[in-house]
Structure prediction request, 409 residues.
Amino acid sequence: MSNENKEWPLWEVFIRSKAGLDHKHAGSLHAADAQMAIENARDVYTRRMEGISIWVVESKHIHASNPEEAAAFFDPAQDKIYRHPTFYNLPDELKHM
Amino acid sequence: MTQVSFEASFQKKIDEEIMIEPQDYMPDEYRKTLIRQISQHAHSEIVGMLPEANWITRAPSLRRKAVLLAKVQDEGGHGLYLYSAAETLGITRDQMLHQLHTGAAKYSSIFNYPTITWADMGAIGWLVDGAAIMNQVPLCRTSYGPYARAMVRVCKEESFHQRQGYEIMLSLAKGTPVQKQMAQDALNRWWAPALMMFGPLDAVSPNTAKSMEWRIKRFTNDELRQRFIDVTVEQIRILGLELPDANIKWNEERGHYDSSELNWDEFWNVVKGNGPCNKERLATRVKAWEDGAWVREAASAYAEKRKTKKAA
Prediction:
């Protein structure tokens, strides 16, 4: 009954909610192939017109940064406040910049 | 880091309201508690389709039928969101289904009660989904990210479930005397089981303290149950129905409604598998899984065939 080895692969679902916006991660689901994953994603994640476009990718193809190394990994950006516009002192009379 | 410092930094994150994500360190007990809770929650959504599916073909109008169908389909979707969330903790879908089918995993006891009249569709939407919403809204801020995100989606969809149920009750309550009586009977039968959905009394709930400390739960069973009673009494009055419990009375001092002690022997009896429909519900799920085996196999075979064709 448990059918352990025949489980369909897991897919990650990305949905574009309307034209001009990015595809955003919505969740995941099981499907035998990409076509079925897209159709299942429509039924599971867009029952109320939440999307106009769906991407699916098999979860095993996703590579992720390691959360345990996050502090060191993202450290290079920590001390570069001059990358933000507010770092610069400009005179108040300068209205449009 | 040592084990102790891992745990300390985990609790610090929890205390600072930083969400835990799948790849983050978490204590084994936290993981186990979540797997149990999320999979039970998923099973409840899936088994919860059955009592209402019972009435789809006999809905009194096309409108009611379309609505009920959409609601039951939503419950299926909610089960799928939750199974996916549980899978991020390292359990497979098949393992969870196996636990459900063998009776190793529980689901909400409310679904072991029968739906004997059309008014039960009203009472379930209104009271059962209402109690579920009361439970689920705080879970949108639960400490485990994938669970919280699934709950946000679920809560957005549940609100129509409760409203359509209340609308059914309203139509019956304003209908013929026989219809009104049907609504009253459904309210009387579902009231106590709905209150039991919040789980055992805090005093005997073994998991509550730890779940609060880990911010999996935000309120205790008794707090949520009381909140549900307080809002529902007003809703009963608007329907013009009798209160289902003669001991419901406003308590000025507490600022809450008092009500009768629940029959906890009945609760534990249903949890243990002896409710009116436990066997039937489980048998239906197992049959659906077994009858679907050839579909799953055919889809896998078709996917395999297309893959080899592409490669050639």
